[in-house]
Design brief:
Elements: E1 2-7, E2 10-13, E3 18-26, E4 37-43, E5 50-56, E6 62-64, E7 72-77, E8 82-87, E9 96-103, E10 120-121, E11 125-130
Parallel strand pairs: 2-11
Antiparallel strand pairs: 1-3, 3-8, 4-5, 4-9, 5-6, 7-8, 9-10, 9-11
Length: 131
């Protein structure tokens, strides 16, 4: 059993910052710490879920959507198995429910943004950016 838990959503004004956290706990089938893809997706009202950023735990490689490059930063605490998404210079278009996802595989360089590739998901946390 794998549990994915997000925290840190909220409401900010444009230009503000938020940090989301995601903890992945595997109780019966431990995910390999050296071969996981962990990251964030988001879904705005009326839109499809889209990839935001992911990280390969083994290599440390990160992948970001063009829309967030330079504003969002991934980091990971391997001891706590917690992934952080630091979001700065937030824009109203960043408003969405943010979901943490994990998969027992290294991230796919060209397909990391496909949500169907991830089996483990959190419940989502709302981020609202007002103008």
């Amino acid at each position: 059993q794998v549990q994915v838990a997000e925290a840190g959503g909220g409401s900010v004004k444009a230009g503000g910052a938020l940090t989301l956290s995601c903890q992945v706990n595997a109780y019966t089938s431990p995910l390999s710490d050296t071969r996981m893809c962990m990251g964030w997706f988001r879904q705005a009202p009326g839109k499809e879920r889209e990839g935001v950023a992911v990280l390969s735990t083994g290599s440390g490689s990160t992948y970001y959507a063009d829309s967030v490059k330079g504003r969002f930063t991934l980091s990971r605490d391997s001891v706590k198995n917690t992934l952080y998404l630091q979001m700065s210079d937030l824009k109203p278009d960043d408003t969405a429910v943010y979901y943490c996802a994990a998969e027992d595989s290294k991230c796919w360089a060209l397909r990391w943004h496909l949500d169907t590739l991830y089996h483990f998901w959190g419940q989502g946390t709302q981020v609202t950016v007002s103008s």
